[in-house]
Records
---
Amino acid sequence: MSLLLKYISHFKIKDLGCENQVTLNRERHEVMTRQAPLMYAAFIINMIALLYPHWDNVPHILSLLIPGIFVTVFIHHGFMEYNNIKRHKSDEQIAQKLYSSMWESSAFAIALLVWSYLLFSYEIPMLQIQIMIFLYMTLTVFAFFLMYVLPTVVLVSVIILVPSTIYLVMTGDVVFSALSLNTMFIALTVIFLLFNQYEILTNLINQKLKLTRQKQSLVEQATKLEIMNDQNLQLANIDTLTALPNRRSFFAQLEQLTSKNTGRPTQKLVVGLMDLDGFKRINDVFGHPAGDALLVKTSQRLQDILGTDINISRLGGDEFGIIITNSCQIDDIQNIGQSICDAMRQVFHLKEGSVQIAATIGFVEYPQMAPTSQLLFERADYALCYSKQHSKGQAVIFSTEHETIIRNISNIEHQLRETDLEQELSIVFQPIIDVQTNKTSGFEALARWENPTLGQVSPDVFIGAAEQMGIIGKLTIILLRKALKAASQWPDDLYMSFNLSIYDLSSPQTVLGLISIVEKSDFPSHRIVFEITETAVMNDFKQANEALNLLKLQGAQIALDDFGTGYSSLSYVQRMPLDRLKIDRSFITDIASDKHTRNIVQTIIDLCNNLNLDCIIEGVEEPEQLSILKQMGCRYVQGYYFSKPLHHEDALKFLGPKQNINNKSAAAK
């Protein structure tokens, strides 16, 4: 019905502003005018064929008077349409004629249907059969003669088919019922074919208009060189996949807007960077064509949300740029960002299947938080990265707090470049306990940095900064060397667990350096466990897996850290050279009160048992948590319940002469 209303609305005069619609209406009118006389002639012949054998069997009002009125109307309309073939009509007149033809045809169909039912009521078998044939043949003739005036055909078909089918089925006659239902099916098939023909006509007209406009455009151009220059300029500034402005266009507009406000800027604007969360997974699972289709749909959804007042550009990959200059929209930037994030969470329907992603956005305001185009982009990018780390799937507006963080990070980066890392970096060790034997099985080595200028710097901060600077490999080498030196003084039954960065696995030089340190160390390689996170592996699975296999060949063991918080793909777990899984502390926090959390932890423990992998639980801080984990069959545990991270000397004291932790009091926590 909605499709029908769509076609009906095209006949209204108010729609004549569309060139395609005007041309389509004219083509419909030409077809209707040219074929109408022949159609009316077919109606008359069909009616005579119906009445002639039964002339005296029904009242003359039904066999002569009413048919005579029909024939008179047919002849009159036939001559009118014939005379209109060569007459020129305005677009408004054509639209009005098409629109009124629907209701005239509907009135004719109703009258014809009532007359046929009156004849049918006389229960003359042959007449009844002829009436059915008459109705369906009339409808067929009408449909094929006016196949391009589709709304009229559909209306008349509904008026004739629906009541007649219901009436014939209710008679209880099997023959009539079967014939009516069969006719209904055939009629629907014919209408479906007519819809296809209608679309073909529409496409041909659109193509014709497109070619005409292209021809006119070529004629209007002064020279062929100017045309090529215009096209090249467009290609240089438009993203070919999404048809949005590209990266070059984005920066050109940004530079233009900020350069107009040199000196004391008066115009405010907001720059936003949006990145899709989960896009790589779509590419990996469904392939790059699906990823391209997702980008196209994303751009369309963005345009629907933001409208034409806001500039949207595709900067590359799954990153989009936004420039907002309207003051009202700038004041409402938080709500705009939230509406974008909410819309991006809605399901996308692709040819390959339905997918769901999210979006993270970073905004920055000009000139308050950034006075130049370059700084605008950098700070919007920082807001985006900050949101990905702290509030993924949300919009973050760059603020003075972020400026302070950047300044601090800059200081940290400066110190990392200039300081003596060999002297300032250190290692602490957190024990991993075997709760079945109540003994320490090993220690996890954790990095610490104390700088004379900055003081104690959080590991997350300085490791993240080192990764961004590309020097994390240097830190890893120093830390591993120190960790192995300390671990060489441990009892022979203890192992050491050491964390590797995503960038360590991506660098063949760093991996070879790690192998060299292990070979030169007094600590046996089979007692070393290298921990990696799911995110690190997923960044480049092939490279990461090759690096892990090299470490495995040296005799080291491999642990997958923070299991359950990343991709958690069992296929990847199966393909990696793993010896143990570590369940993230986020699952332990509510394990005493949350049944679902307990079920998840139990499932991972069972998985490890089935795959012959050791399972280590992180973040145990309460006796109740430990009791539940023991009941689940968990064996290896670490957390503040047993001990905080310890310096080397304290770690040796923690072990004690017999490695018995039964006498460890709360002071050891």
Note: Confidence is low (pLDDT under 50) at residues 1-17, 660-669.
---
Amino acid sequence: MEEKKRNKRGYLTMAVTILINLIIIAVIASSEFGQDNAGVQQISIADIRVLGLFLAFAAFCTAVYMEYVKYRKMLMGLEGRDDKRGALEVALLGKYYDNVTPFGAGGQPFQMLYLKKRGVSPGTAGALPVVGFLTQQFAFVSVAAVVFIANRSVLSDNALIKGSAYVGMFTYMLVPTAIVLFAVAPNVFKKIVGGGTRLLGKLHILKDAKKTEASVYSALDEYVVSLKNLNSRPHFFFKLLVISIVYQIAIMSIPYFVLLAFRGTEDWWTVFSTVVYIYAAITIIPTPGNSGAAESYFYIAFSSIEGGSPFWAMLVWRGFVYYSWLLCGIIVLMLQKVRFVKPKKKVPEKGRLSVALFNDIHYPSVDGVVRTVDAYARELRADGNYSLCVVPRMDESYVDDRGYEVIRTPSLKLFNFAFYIGLPFIPPGLLDKLRTEGVNVIHAHSPFGIGKMAIKVGKKLKIPVVATFHSKFYDDAYNVTHSKFCANVVKNYVTDFFSQADEVWACSESTSATLRSYGFHGAIRIMENGVEPAPADKLDVFAERARKELVIKDGKPVILFVGQLIWQKNLRVILDALKLIKERSGEYSAVIAGAGYNGQEIREYSEKLGLSDRVSFVGEIADRELLWGLYRLADLFFFPSVYDNAPLVLREAAQAGTPALLAAGSNAAEPVRDGDNGYIAEPDAGSMAEKLLFILSDPQREDIGRRAQETIPITWDEIVSRADRAYRSINVSEK
């Protein structure tokens, strides 16, 4: 009942608005065609420049697209969901209601209602329209400030529009200024508002000054909360602001193209600047959509143009910037009555599961994510399901023979990097292959080229897409570029990628927290990494083999690191700590296993510290038996990385009964309790050295290793069984 009343009021407002427009148009038509101006009156269809109309239409489409992109980005950033239809509809509805409410700015409550109906959380439904309004406010102020400063001479002969524009700009800036002031200096703002409302109360302009003051605080509080959220993500706010500025430029360029179509002769900058003044001037007009004032000011400003027909130009301009929004809004309202939902293919609750795993790296290259994808593919097959991997084409001589099918896609090798870049384009035959195999789940393990392909494939085949967050991509980008700006660009890209997945997984609670710190707000399922079962009866044999083949000295405690040789793994801390305990006569033999692009620098740094007699670099070990032997041989697994999320090497060391020393506060240390099933120290060389000296003489070290063996590892068959259940529980309906 309430909604029907609201709709009736809306229709009545629209009717009154159209009536006002018709009256103003009639007055302008009478003024123009009553003049003896054959040049204006005799314009024909043949005289119209079609290119101008096309460019005006393109500018309007650009404005619509910018609003759509902005709301889509906000839904992904604030809600963690990629809802293209919802983004377009909430953008169009906002403009529709803006244009049927006084002052041309009343769409937010209707947008909030729409978002709630669409299943968006109340917090996001309330914040998203506010953020959209704020960015448009700041964008217009930015554009207008540039024009007011750079083109003060425009409209110099029209004091009415120019004076109204300055007044309008002042009032337009009141809201964003008040929001900023209320956010940064609430006490000062309250004094200003309190003093103003009391004065207006004494002048009998306000009936209840205290009530008005409270309502002002309440209204601004919503804006301030949204502004503070944006301030915590400056790159996200900057992106939205740029999108809004492009929108403003597109909308305010339409008059130039329309005038061009009707043979106007003014240049773009003059017309654009004039329109900025017009928009600022009509801000203070309380009619819905600024009706009447917009038409009048446009005609007054451009009636002196040589040639052309400002009357017809004015009509076409209002058609684009006013009636088009109304038409789009009406279409959206009508479509809300009928929904054509195309459900995604359902994941079977029982029976055979068919999973396609997408990753940007695979064998022969090896890292934790490669081994995770490999384990998923093998265990799914072992459980009677079907699996295949979609990965970039790499070493042509490598043969994929790990017990599951591998599809190699086109890739690029950039410069001297050791890895290949997977291209996001779906290769011929892939879709048919996935259809033939009945794939019902896509699982992306990387957000880049192949990950983007996974999202595209999921959308085309209507298959749900799971995406797992594995790495600290911000740290990766910063270490490569040494630029916070570039790292933030990557971070925002990663957030957008995960917002497009149907379900997001993380390998630990701390890893989930990392993704949330990037700005992702959607649901995250924790799906831990597993480990291969250790061959317990053969570990001692493997250990003896490792001692002989890797020439590890007997009689000294063995400290082991296994992982990529990259500085972000805290290799500098490892070597500095080993140097310190050597200086304190600590006896040990250190083994560093792995390869990486910083490998040569790390070896040189070790030699520089004088550790050649204590530290052995044994390279990457692909032989699993030899690696198990190395884990078993070690007295301590030393892994102070704050970069890793849920390292497999920690779980493998625990499987062999070897305790680990990790960095306090790191994601890797999440399953470890200091002194119970492992050791933890602050991630600096001094603290690590002190802890190492303690551990090497700790009589409880073997007991701690046994507790690590009992509490830290989970086998891959158990993990993939959990993943199987999670795949089948995915909500596959599209909203």
Note: Confidence is low (pLDDT under 50) at residues 37-41.
